[in-house]
Specification:
With 823 residues, this protein is of the alpha+beta class. The chain folds into 6 domains: 2-140, no CATH class; 148-199, no CATH class; 204-345, Glucose Oxidase, domain 1; 350-422, no CATH class; 434-509, no CATH class; 516-793, Rhopdopsin 7-helix transmembrane proteins, CATH 1.20.1070.10. It is 40% helix and 13% strand. The protein has 23 helices and 25 strands. Helix 11 packs antiparallel against helix 13 (554-574) and helix 11 runs parallel beside helix 21 (756-765).
């Protein structure tokens, strides 16, 4: 549009105005008219020559004449936008959007290169320097030594304002260094403010290309794709094929595209094309690519994210695009694009920032929009994200809140997160992601990039994912992982994918449960084993409490306490997913924060059973190794009962603020510290029973020696029986609490997000201690009954020289001893 306006204006200018002063006239200086609406060239004492239409057209021009007029003879028949004249031309003053360049230096460089002016002797230097000089004199202000301020700026791209102090209102224009890296050398800039101004000297340049397109000999208007690098000239011909699915269906390969010109209808990306679109076309074998907007009639050359094009890539208007799609598929198309110059622009108004110049103002961050060799190295300071009501929205650094609001590069994400206080985590928890510092960005191969929904099948885009923060929708999560290169084998990727079932995505699902049957198994298998545990512990508890003799013995008191707290924990486990907040969308989850906290609390209360196992190990240690009697054991039983309760209840109450979803049920989700007591309990119980085992082993070896000498060694039989009873209870302990600890460790270390069968196996064992205890308890009761029956049978058959009454009394005494309860 601007090009057309400029061409029309210049045609009017050439046809209606007089020519610039002839070569015969001499001038000693250029006189600049200071009127706002006209800018003129003139020879001293000569006539005025208008080189500008009124400023309402937005055009500014300068007349590049020197005193002798011979230095620019090479440019005598050159004019802007290809208008050929036979007199010295007037050129458009540089502006930020000028294809020739935004300052005199880049403009003259482009002109000389574009028109292939061959340097001879000093001619090239003369043309170059004189053109810059007069361009600057008529178009620019603020050269070396001029006073400058925020309102009166120095010449952009060639000079910067050097402030003596950060609080000074004015400074002095200073020539930009040849390398902006010199800005950071000590003493070059007088203040930090000057350093930021100096960094604006860097010119951002890009290739300016022209394009051509014809189909079956019919010329069509086209524009090249901007912001992409290519060889100086690209040209190709081939049959036209429709490859719109590489955008619309997000397929990687366009079928039957080998050797063809690929046509793509863009209904989604609009002004920004990601480089993988052209990559897909190249991989499909396309020799050229034509893109048109399926929504807007604007032809616009779309901006292309960093890439090097190996095939010509052009854009056409909607009408032409639809015409090609409907009528020209299979026709021969010729596409060309050629670099004819470069455009450069400095950061005139922008507050430049980079790794060395951070943003100074509060609530701002560096947007990193300028790339070098595919790496974003600098940008402008912009405001931190805000919500629709203007409130701070730190999570906007990561996730798109509304269309067009997302942050585009990972460098920008990191800068925003650091400056705006945005974190992708709650307080520490087992099932929470690592913060941004733990995010690994960048992959060597696109196939290694994480995709939240690998099949791009987000069925519920507006559901909230209860993971990285509040109100993060499914489509925000999908956009985040599609936009940023997070490795697919990273912990945060696996954690995010374990929640993609909420969005209806195909994939590993909740804890690796990829089917509904697997999800149901995670609910019902632990529920069944928990109920078995409740019944087992209830049997043991009733059996102990119903007889006074058992209630008074330390062993049975420990078993009663263990069973009681196991019932509490197992009942909590039996609810499985029911108390989990419903926004996790897991089968059976109908709870809320309060129900989740309650379940987690009672599960933690159930760990008293674990610590009571340690007391049971101490009991066996004192009885077997130390030989304590029941009377002596009764003096310490109170401590063996109280200590587990104190430890378990302390951690249960301390964990209330940390209760959260742990996949199978709710539990203390804080990392590591809730599991330390259980780990210590396992270690202590193992150490104590190991000591008992070693003692029994030594006694067994000694008894073998005594038996060889004729001693029966029957004195150790009771200790041996009690030892094996302790081993069985230790196995019950090991079948429950190491799996519990392993599951907690895997949650905290990020290794159990999709290990379905491990989670199912551990989930089945964790609630089952009551079942194992019942098995061991019942086994001992059965063996005791068998021993009693055998003893009675043998006693009734014993007939010796001793009186029957004596034998019967002896048998009765033995039977009575055998019928005594377990120790």
């Amino acid at each position: 549009m601007r090009c057309s306006l400029a061409i029309a204006s210049l045609l009017i200018l050439v046809s209606s105005l007089c020519t610039c002063i002839s070569a015969e006239s001499k001038n000693e200086s250029i006189i600049i008219d200071t009127l706002n609406d006209w800018k003129r060239c003139s020879l001293e004492g000569g006539e005025w020559s208008i080189c500008l239409q009124p400023t309402g057209y937005g055009l500014s021009w300068y007349c590049p004449l020197d005193e002798s007029e011979h230095a620019l003879d090479k440019l005598g028949n050159i004019s802007w936008y290809g208008i050929q004249t036979d007199f010295h031309p007037c050129f458009k003053c540089p502006t930020e959007d000028s294809p020739l360049g935004s300052d005199c230096l880049s403009t003259m460089t482009t002109l000389v290169e574009q028109y292939n002016i061959t340097p001879t002797t000093n001619e090239y230097e003369d043309i170059f320097e004189v053109g810059i000089e007069y361009c600057a004199e008529m178009c620019e202000a603020g050269l070396s030594g001029d006073v400058c301020s925020d309102e009166n700026k120095c010449t952009g791209g060639s000079h910067f304002c050097d402030y003596s102090g950060d609080d000074e209102l004015t400074g002095v224009c200073k020539m930009c260094p040849a390398d902006v890296g010199e800005c950071f050398n000590g003493g070059f800039s007088s203040s930090d403010r000057s350093l930021k101004e100096c960094y604006k000297c860097r010119l951002a340049c890009y290739d300016v290309t022209v394009s051509s397109l014809s189909v079956d000999g019919e010329e069509l208007t086209s524009e090249p794709i901007r912001m992409a690098t290519q060889e100086s000239t690209l040209s190709a011909s081939g049959p036209l094929v429709d490859c719109s699915d590489i955008i619309l269906a997000d397929v990687d390969i366009c079928p039957d595209a080998e050797g063809s010109v690929c046509l793509v209808a863009d209904y989604t990306i609009h002004s920004l094309l990601f480089f993988d679109i052209s990559d897909k076309a190249e991989k499909s074998g396309c020799v050229a690519m034509i893109k048109f907007d399926g929504v807007s009639s604007y032809i616009g050359g779309s901006h292309h994210s960093y890439d090097h094009l190996t095939i010509p890539f052009v854009s056409v208007g909607t009408n032409d695009g639809n015409h090609l799609k409907d009528n020209k598929i299979g026709s021969t198309a010729h596409v060309g694009s050629e670099i004819w110059g470069s455009a450069c622009y400095p950061s005139f108004e922008a507050i430049a920032c980079n790794d060395k110049i951070p943003c100074q103002d509060a609530d701002t961050y560096c947007d990193y929009t300028v790339a070098q060799n595919g790496v974003y190295v600098e940008g402008e300071c912009v405001e931190c994200p805000k919500g629709e009501g203007g409130e701070p929205d730190p999570l906007g650094c990561y996730f798109e809140r509304r269309e067009g609001s997302f942050i585009k590069t990972q460098e920008e994400v990191e800068s925003c997160a650091k400056s705006c206080g945005a974190y992708l985590t709650y307080d520490e928890c087992k099932f929470c992601p690592n913060d941004i510092s733990a995010f690994e960005f960048g992959v060597e191969n696109k196939a290694d990039q994480c995709h939240f929904c690998p099949q791009n099948d987000v069925l519920h885009p507006d559901r909230f994912v209860p993971l990285f923060g509040k109100n993060i929708t499914c489509w925000s999560m999908q956009a985040f992982f599609e936009r940023l290169e997070v490795p697919k084998d990273s912990e945060n990727c696996q954690l995010a994918q374990s929640f993609n079932y909420i969005c209806g995505c195909q994939g590993p699902g909740y804890a690796g449960a990829s089917t509904q049957a697997k999800k149901n198994a995670l609910v019902w298998v632990p529920r069944v084993t928990a109920m078995l545990s409740v019944m087992g512990s209830l049997f043991v508890l009733i059996d102990v409490l119903r007889e006074r003799s058992r209630r008074s013995k330390p062993f049975f008191q420990l078993m009663a306490q263990m069973s009681f707290f196991d019932i509490i924990g197992s009942v909590a486990y039996a609810f499985t997913s029911l108390p989990i907040p419903s926004n996790f969308y897991f089968p059976g989850a109908h709870g809320n924060k309060a129900s989740c906290t309650s379940q987690g609390f009672f599960i933690q209360v159930g760990t008293v059973a674990c610590f009571t196992n340690v007391s049971l190990a101490v009991y066996y240690f004192l009885m077997i190794k130390k030989g304590w009697s029941q009377t002596r054991l009764k003096k310490v039983i109170l401590w063996l009962l109280i200590c587990p309760v104190i430890v378990g209840m302390t951690f249960a109450f301390a964990g209330i603020p940390f209760m959260g979803n742990l996949v199978l049920w709710c539990n203390n989700s804080a990392p590591w510290w809730p599991d330390i007591p259980v780990a210590i309990a396992i270690f202590v119980a193992t150490f104590i029973m190991g000591s008992v085992f070693w003692d029994v082993y030594k006694k067994d070896q000694a008894s073998k020696r005594w038996r060889q000498r004729g001693d029966s060694g029957s004195g150790n039989s009771i200790s041996t029986k009690v030892f094996w009873q302790s081993v069985w209870y230790l196995m019950s302990f090991y079948a429950t609490w190491p799996p519990y600890l392993a599951l907690q460790y895997f949650w905290a270390s990020g290794k159990a997000y999709d290990t379905y069968y491990f989670i199912l196996f551990a989930g089945a064992l964790v609630p089952l201690q009551g079942g194992w205890n019942w098995f061991v308890y019942a086994r001992n009761r059965q063996l005791k009954g068998l021993r009693t029956a055998m003893s009675s049978y043998i006693s009734s058959r014993l007939v010796t020289g001793t009186s029957f009454r004596s034998v019967n009394r002896s048998s009765t005494n033995r039977s009575s001893n055998n019928q005594s309860d377990q120790p």
